[in-house]
């Protein structure tokens, strides 16, 4: 099981914002690693094969944070 890596540029202004993104992603089955940088305004997510890009994107979007860009890394 190789999994996927996704990268998102997300507008986050405080630790509460990044914390909200972290909390919703941790609830997703299939997330194996989350790297959030408030300074760089980025969210990197590593998942199992079963979790697709759109599901991760929509989960982040539900927090109300603006996603400026998103792409599949692997």
TrEMBL record:
GO BP field: copper ion transport
GO molecular function, one term: copper chaperone activity
Domain named HMA: residues: 3-68
A cellular component annotation (GO) from this entry: cytosol
Keywords, alphabetical: Chaperone, Copper, Copper transport, Ion transport, Metal-binding, Transport
Domain of life: Eukaryota
InterPro entries: Copper_transport_ATOX1-like, HMA_dom, HMA_dom_sf
Gene3D superfamilies: 3.30.70.100
A Pfam family hit: HMA
Signal peptide: none
PROSITE patterns per UniProt: HMA_2 (PS50846)
Family designation: Belongs to the ATX1 family.
PANTHER family, per database record: COPPER TRANSPORT PROTEIN ATOX1
Record-given protein name: Antioxidant and copper/iron homeostasis protein
Species: Scheffersomyces stipitis (strain ATCC 58785 / CBS 6054 / NBRC 10063 / NRRL Y-11545)
